[in-house]
Amino acid sequence: MYLEKLLVTLLAAPVIAPVPTTVAHQVVAQAPAQPAPAPAAPKAEAPKAAEAPKAAAKKIAPEVKELVERMQAFYEKTQDFSAEFKQDYKYKVLRRTQSSTGTVIYKKPGLMRWEYLKPSTRTFVLAGEKVYAYDPEAQTLSVGRIDTSQLSASVTFLFGQGKLADEFSISKGACKDCKGTLLVLDPLKPDPRFQQVRLEVDSKTAQVLKSTVVDPDGSENAIAFINLKTNVGVGADAFKINPPEGTRIDDFTKPRK
Question: Residue 76 belongs to what domain range?
Answer without folding.
Answer: 2-19+58-233
